[in-house]
Each structure stands twice: as structure tokens, then as C-alpha cells.
Amino acid sequence: MKFRRPRSLNGLILVGFGLVALPLLVAVIWALVNLDRLAEQSADIVTMGVESADNNRLLTDEVVQLQRSTNQYYVLRNDESRILMRQDLRRIERRLQAMATLTNQAGAVELSVMIGREARSIVRAVSVENVSNRDAETAIARFGPLRQQVDSLTIQLKTFVDTELGNLQESTSKAQRISAWQVAALVPGTLLLVLFFTLLIGRPIRQIDNAIHQLGQSGFSKPIDIKGPTDLERLGRQLEWLRVRLLELAQEKNRFLRHMSHELKTPLANIREGTEILLDGAVGDLDKPQREVTDILRMNGLKLQQLIENLLSFSAWQAKSEVLTLSDFPLRALVISVAKEQRLALKSAGIQLRLEVEDINVNADRDKMRTVLDNLLSNAVKFTPKGGMVTIRASRETASFVINFADTGPGIPDEERTRIFEAFFQGRREQGGHVAGTGIGLSVVLECIQAHDGSVELVDTGEFPGAHFRIHVPQASVTAQQKLAANA
């Protein structure tokens, strides 16, 4: 039979609470009922023991008193003594009658009847008219066995009370054992029920949490499907609608960026071509001031081209349409090539470039690494004051290569450190140069490095006063390929 769970979250919580509380409630009720029964039995046994002790003591005293009054009648032989003797006999009979319930429970009815019969027999024997002394003494002598019967009745009733007390103790121990087993069974059972309903409730909540985290990380490609209570499924459908809407907005944004970037590249290419014609002297020689202005135009044209390429690269990464093209290449030669492309910007700003790059071969996407180096160097030039210095270090580690970019600029404020890799985020500090940035340079750097399963972080070593970026790019696959080649 299929378990039909409640469809709503509130219903599921109520059912879970009921199933968890029901065994506990049954156990508590059972314990209360048994406790009440044991308390009642205990009270009955205590009352029975007290009454038994009192009746046994009184019965013994009354037999002794009957023996005394019988002896008195034997000596005096008057009516007053006979009346006293008969009164003592009636007290014994009433005492035995009062003890009838207890003697019946103890199985001592026969002994009780014998005591009463013997007492009456003694009194009748002594009360006979003109009874001889011998017969009277014989009858009185029967008080010894009568007292022994009374003692036997006392012992039998005491044994019965002790047995009942032992039974009560056994019942109490049994109830304790049952309670202990119930607790031993209820604790894991309750934990299993709690775990079961926690999973029923927690799984869709975790799915919703993962879906929200996915949306927060711009993960719009994976559909959101929440299984669970109806209200949580309804929330999941709303999140799916939000995901589709955000995906449409992201696609529209990327299309806009691609179209805008392509539209800007055509006039920019014409501007750059015209600038190169002027610098080559195709339309006449330029004097020194004219050449300086043309150099400025050329340099800023290159900056605009870099910004547009960043927009195209960012749009391509967002659309997940680019793949890595891995190859082996010398890292130092690539760094020098990027530095030469920005020599005019470095010279114009009066910034020194210090290269501490080991002559190593790395395995990566050459174009992506060029974009990373170019963006970080452009970023350092923007924020380094005139006369400052930019340092580039690169070295190999065990399973990766490391690149450090550092400058002597103002650095990055603490409140902006967590957002510098966000797309289109620009800090409050003014940038250098004639062309403002778009705020996606570091975002493109992060995308390129993450595509290599690497990392880029902002570090504080105390060696440089400005910003210091450190890049790790793993090379484990290269090491494995080299080992395979050596074994072949």
C-alpha cells in the first residue's frame, strides 16, 4: 500500500508531530495506568498487613482471655463466670468472622473454622452441668493445641501477606522492565521518525536553497524542479519562472553587448586606420606636436579596442560559447609581447615596468592568457600614479604556475575587495587615462582563469603599497601527459 503523505507543508508537519508524539503518549498513558494499579495494590497490601497483624494479635489475646475466664469458671462455678466465658467466646467468633475475607484469600478458611469450633467445644465441655473435674481439666487442657492453631493461622496469614508483597515487587520490577524496553524502543523509533520527516521537509527546502544559490550565481541554464509539499512545489514553480525570466534578460543583455560591440568595431577600425596612415606619413609629414596628438589618438584607439574586445569576451563567456584551446608556449615571451603593446601607455604615464618572469613553458589557452595579462597590465597602468612601478612575477610550482601583478598605486579599499571581480563594477577612486573603463576587465580575467580551473585573488604581502593580484593555473594534466610520454 502506497504511503499517502499530506500535500501541504503544514499538514506534513502536523502528521510528523502526531506520529512522533503518539508512541510517547501511549507510553505515558501505559505508565500512568500501571503506576495507579501498583499504587492501589500497594495500598491494599499495606492495609491487609496492618489488619492481619492487628487481628492476629487480638485473636491471640482473646484466646488467652477465654482460657482465663474458663479457668475462672472451673474454679468458681457461678453464673457470672459462665456469662464472662461466653462473652469471650463470642468475641473470638466475631474476630474470626472479621478475618473471614483475609482467611479466604489466604486459603486458611478450614483452619479458621477449626479454631472457632474448638473454642466452642471447649466452652460447651466446661459448661456442662455437674461436669467432673477430670472432664473440665481435659477440656481446659485443649487450650494448648488451640493456641498452636491460632499461631499457625497467624503464620499462614503472614506468609500470604509476604507473598502478596513479593508479587507486588515482581509486578513493579516487570513494569520497570517494560518501561525500560519502551524507552529503549521509543528513542531510536522517535529519532527515525524525526529523521524521516526531516528528510521529507528538508529535501525540498535544500532544493529551494540550491535553486536560489544557483540564481544568485547567474546559473540560469539548469531548470528548477522542486518535489515535496504543494506549497513548496508552488514556490519552486515561481523560482522556475524567475529563472526563465532572468535567462531571457541575460540573453537580451548579451545580444545587446555583442551587437553594440560589433557596431563600435567598424568605426573604430576606420579611426585606427586613419591614425596609422597619418603616422606613416602617407598624407604628408607630421611635425612633432602633430605626431604627439596622433600618438594620443592611436593610444586611446587601442584602449577603446581593448574595451570592446573585453565586452565581446565577456559576452562570449556569459553565453558559454567559447572553449579553451590548450597549447604549450613560453610564458616570458607572452608577457614581453603584452608589455610591448602597452609601451606607449607606460611611457606616457611615466611608469616603470619590472619583469621577474622565469623562462618556463606552460600549457594553457594562449589567447585567454594574453587577455588576462593585457587586462591586468591595463588595470595597473590606470591606477598607478606617474613615476610609479608595475611588477610582474611568474614562476612554476609543483603542479601549477603562478603570476603576480602588483603596482604602487593607492590599492583597493576594503569595502570594495569583495566586489572587484563583479561584472561592470567600478570603484569610487578615479582612473587614469582618457578612456574610462567598463568595469568588466577583472571579470573577464576571473572567467578566463576559472576556465583553466585556476584561481585569481587579491593578496596583501606588505611588499607593494598598491593592488597585488596572484594567479594560480594548475598544470596537473601536463604533468600526467609528460609521465605517460616517459613511460611510452
Would you summarize the structure shown here?
With 488 residues, this protein is an alpha+beta fold.
Could you explain the architecture of this structure?
69% of the residues lie in helices and 9% in strands. It is an alpha+beta fold. It is rod-shaped, with a radius of gyration of 54 Å. Helix 4 (109-127) runs antiparallel to helix 5. The chain has three domains: 9-195, Four Helix Bundle (Hemerythrin (Met), subunit A), CATH 1.20.120; 229-321, Signal transduction histidine kinase, dimerisation/phosphotransfer (DHp) domain (Helix Hairpins, Orthogonal Bundle); 323-487, 2-Layer Sandwich (Heat Shock Protein 90). The strands form two sheets. The protein has a five-stranded mixed sheet with strand order 2-4-5-7-6, covered by helices on one side. Strands 1-3 form a two-stranded antiparallel sheet.
